[in-house]
Amino acid sequence: MQNNGRNSSFIILTGLSGAGKTQSMKALEDLGFFCIDNLPPVLLQKIIELQADSSDQRRYAIAMDIRGQEYFKQLEEALDWLEHTGYDHRIIFLECSDSVLVRRFSEVRRAHPLAGKGSIYESIALERRMLAPIRNRADVVIDTSAFKPVDLKTHLCTVVTGKPLDRLMFLDVFSFGFKYGAPIDADIVFDARFVPNPYWVPELKHTTGLNAECSEYIFREPIANYFVKAASEMLVRLIPYYSSEGKSRLTIGIGCSGGQHRSVAITERLVKELLEAGVNCQARHREIAAGHVVVEENLEGGVSCLDR
User: What pLDDT digit, counting tens, does each position of 124-141 carry?
Assistant: First the structure.
């Protein structure tokens, strides 16, 4: 059955030329949709039936508009078919004021798809008349006149998922060793070398921060616990601000000398704190993954670590 609520399997995106369909498709792609732009309406049935008959669980965003020219008149027929089948879908229509559309076409120096011998205002008026039946049957109409690209992305996210954009922010938190090079792909880097190094404790030297004894040693230090709490609170507070600038992923590097003890334990504890705060995040360990730190089974069945 059709569900006009959130998380529809198919988004049909249409609207006025220059109203923001390109930016909208980029935003929907970031939200995990498989995006198909400028699809001839006659192919809509094939796409939907292929998805329904397979194990493909992806959500689709399909843009169809006046650029299809002679195919466009088939759009209403395709939407009629879609409504009668009961496939889960939503129709999102983008519109915009005439003055903003004229400015946008002037800035990009592109002709309107319906441009002829008349003015651009006449082309826009003609397109409005042609799209009126589609607009009337849309589930959501978004006026993008006052939107910057990030505003459109934020609004679309709320419309499509029912969640604000910052709730979909993903934090990739990873440990690393400075002696193997500072990361160039991190948005934020923390230096964990202020904590006493377990490397100098004989029984901990060949463990990693994943080891319970090693982690316990590190977090005996009040400053380690303070850092995790402060970093977690700071990141939770910053997420909405990063999100408002259009970021959907934030990469956090936690470094120590070799990426073996301190940075690993602190990364694990920080991710635990962030998950408890409701943040979508993961922990990974660069040097362990790269083989700079080799994790081996010891004779007692536990885990030991040899630094290459």
Answer: 998 999 899 989 999 999
